[in-house]
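Q: What changes when adenosine-5'-diphosphate is included in the input?
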Amino acid sequence: MSQKQTLSFQAEVAQLLHLVTHALYSNKEIFLRELISNASDACDKLRFEALHNSALYEDAPNLEVRVSFDPEARTLTIADNGIGLSQQEAIDNLGTIAKSGTREFMNRLSGDQKSDAQLIGQFGVGFYSGFIVADKIAVESRRAGLPPAEGVRWVSGGAGDFEVETMVRAQRGTSVTLHLREDAQDYLSSWKLKSIIGKYSDHISLPILMRKEEWKEGEEGKPGEHVLTGEWETVNQATALWTRAKKDITPEQYQEFYKAISHDYEDALAWSHNRVEGSTEYTQLLFVPGRAPFDLWNREKAAGVKLYVKRVFIMDDAEALLPAYLRFVKGVIDSADLPLNVSRELLQESRDVKAIREGNTRRVLAMLEDLAKSEKDEAASAEDKGRFAKFQAEFGAVLKEGLGEDPANRDRIAGLLRFASTQSDTASVSLADYKARMKEGQDAIYYITGETQAAAAHSPQLEIFRKKGIEVLFMTDRVDEWALSYLTEFDGTPLQSVAKGQVDLGKLQDESEKKAAEEAAESFKPVLARLKEALKDKAQDVRVTTRLVDSPACLVVTDGGVSLQLARLLKQSGQKAPDAKPVLEVNASHPLVRKLEGSPNFNDLAHILFDQALLAEGGLPEDPAAYVKRVNALLA
Ligand code: ADP
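A: The predicted holo structure follows.
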């Protein structure tokens, strides 16, 4: 390629560019953070490749970022001597968005600037954020290791296309020149740029250089002014934040660091910064975000922890450093012991990494326990008190995956779960709270699963529990059913689904109730036999129950069986669900059920009873038309 080529942006890029420039308008200055962060990443990559090939340093081994501006040309330039871009890389990386889930992300954008700005923040707009302040961006670059003749110049006005051409470029690395918009001229100021760098990029471990300014007295009564000199000075601390002592880092600095590595807009809920010594030595700096990313439910998605070895950046998204159920955590791990040439494969097998993962897991759980503690702490501020609820709302459901994934920490995870219940509309009941208010004689923690809280709350299975004032927890997250199968007990008390197996309220029933139930069951035996026969294709059994008060019938599954709710979820997601038939339980004292005995329409009534029980817990009759026909026949 020597001639100039004009290429189109991938459709999504054009769309994103439009959104970025509009939605992020009120937070313009982040462009500088994004571009400096790219420059710093490019230097990290060079350092990493140079581990095997030191010739890549050419004659410039000191990696750095230079920020400069030209008031006349109204341009601002961010230059690095990092890895650089080849011509093809410029076309690929600056013309497409390689991130997975881009399309899904686009669909989520609503057109509402404020909420879109938040979403875009989570997505991370990176390079394209330059167009918030620039109406033209020129990138000049040469990849380390390529000859000067193979430099590349990339120019775009941020609309539909960009131009690329070959150029001769002596220096390795990339310079990004922003032609500032009319309303972004205030970035042509050392003071302004320094204050933004101080706020967002202080923790970048590379030196960020700017030209020194000098005060020049005005001549003949004219006011004096600052003028740029030829000398460069470092304007950031230039030490990686996590290597500094905790006491020297302010909360604001932690938050800015969090935002820089996560691309989040909002503050983190909590963080933990520690130097760990023991069988393996490392520094951990972990953050719990305040908001779930748009692709939280993609278990394959990039994890949020960056791995460094002795301050050399090794890789992003090192999934081996945290279990999948903590994939929302962001941060940095800097190991003193891992080899610099560690690969993803090696990470999976390394004993040091296993120790780091376990240490990280414990640390995150401890952070969450602290959040939960401040919720109940009288002395805590309102904001601190609210943090755990915020965490629950965003990540409570993901955390439950840990019950299955991390048996070693199951009890701690269970302690952090919160549920809504028959006594709480909000998901705020912990298993410990539940236990503390169990009734005398109650020997299980009862729960019910359902598609929504309303569906669960109206389930007929709850009737007897309501009547007796026994609390039942609502499990309405999609993961609940699966996760709960791993949590058979909490602190010595078994968990029991109210829709599985026989109800045995044991000591909670008095003698007369037990006796009445037994008698009803006995006298009902002949009807039961006929019901079983009529429903033999639908129900594996029909029996009399004590769990119903107002409803005529309900469906339950056998202990250890797959609940009807889970079977539906499996089918919806295209998986094979076990075909086990449910058990129909009938309320022998209900008028409708009593009516069965002498009815000439016994068969139709039996099917209606079954299908209604199915409807009541959120299912659909196998043959809805037949159901409607039967009901209509009765109504007529
Ligand atoms: P992200 O950094 O999240 O991947 P960006 O849109 O910021 O997304 O950048 C896209 C890609 O362009 C980067 O992944 C990188 O490969 C390349 N890139 C951006 N800036 C630079 C730079 N200063 N030096 C080298 N490559 C860069």
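Observations recorded in class: The chain has four domains: 5-236, 242-375, 416-507, 508-635.
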